[in-house]
Amino acid sequence: MSIPFQIVILGGGTAGWMAANLFAHKWADKVASKALQISLIESPDIGIVGVGEGSTPTLKRFFEMLNIPEKDWMGKCNATYKMNIAFAGFSPASGIERYSHPFISQIDTFTQRAFMVNSRTRRMGLATHTAPEGFLLNGVLAKQGKGPQTPDNFPFSIEYGYHFDSHLLGTFLQEHAISLGVMHVQTKVETVTRHPNGDIASLQCKDGRNINGHFFVDCSGFASVLMQKTLGVKFNSYKDNLFNDAAVVVPTPIGEHIPVETISTALSAGWCWKIPLTNRFGNGYVYSSDFIDANQAESELKQHLQLGDNQECRHLSMRVGALEKQWQNNCLAVGLSSGFIEPLEATALHITQIAIEQFIMAFEEGDFSNRLQDEFNLKMHQRLERTRDYIVAHYKLNTRDDSDYWRANRSNLNLSESLKQILDVWYKCGDLDNEIKRQDLTTHFNAVSWNCLLAGYGAFPPLAAKQPGKGDLYQEQNIAQFIHGCALNFQSHKHNLCR
Predict the structure, then answer these.
(1) What's the angle, vertex CA 86, arms to CA 434 and CA 302, rounded to 5?
(2) What is the mean pLDDT of the chain?
(3) What value does the CA radius of gyration of the chain take, rounded to a whole number of Å?
(4) Catalytic residue among 30, 60, 82, 143
């Protein structure tokens, strides 16, 4: 009897169990025929970070690929719908107190060009409407507190993400992966052995077991046991342009009305998220320890949330950056072990899922070898760098002047060439859509998302002294009427639950 090809995943959590599910689903025939064995090893003594509670629409696609309907998982994970991310207080000098970054849906094809044209018109000094939520459907729905359910005859697909309890989601994914044939081994790994060529050979465990594998997946979190500690892959810090390295988190009660958006609010040395679940709000202050210490951050968060001093909080450290390579030898890094870009745009699970999907394609096309490893690493490097750029822009473009933290971010000159070119085109009134296409960035953050950020921050020149008449009023009214009509077709979803 031939030995099956063995994939060993070190570490559970959302990343580990997401990888296990996608592998087992994609290669179900190999698992069923015993040609492939997938094992996930996790220590019962090591917890997970457990604060990544928001997603992009890629998570919707994840569950669709696994044929898991929302009614089967949302209730078990205290999940709610997410249509939008709202940013408050990042650019007060612009006069914009809050702006939206809605998830872009198919129906926005009819209005997104008007949004971008208006943004370009405003860049030329002419007064016009540029609020993203005035043009993009999910921004309207979030403002009205409506979820994404549509009538059966609604002809457009709607994109949306979720809010969820990450511990409960990890448990759900664990149970589903086991049902697909994944072996779950609870033990602590003490040492890692290697073959003469440098490949990982086995995991030696505290209970005496020796777990052999042909391919390994490092989901050991910030510890990066396999990729960094064993294979010595270099970690590139983003500290020079993303200052935040810590967080303090605390839950608060939630009322009858459950929003369909994440709210991110700028504070003195970072920002605070507010994520609605069915049973609570999740709150966290992401900050830089160079500008404020842990006690000060906790006090500021409690003051922001109007909590008493006795409220217990949890403190976390973050290491922001990415591995130089995501795939080295016979090992793939997934989740926090591969790197982390702070959660301002909820990209962590998105990048995790994309990495797993890209790996599956590369591994298959390379006949289950390392043949396409370099190509995969290049793609993931570009995705991480360009995601970082979009997050960096949130800090670089701020107009706060109430703390050294925000002033330091605004004066920071550590920008990539890609980001410099985007900002140059914007401020010179060029065609941002063409620049995004020229740089081949449409699979990261597209031109609509960049317009949401730049227009949302009010990154415009002063208005020209002479303004034309209200020539665009008719067009804006028609756009508003069109979006409002679409919103009326949606069922009001008061509690945002999948019942």
Answers:
(1) 140
(2) 92
(3) 23
(4) 82
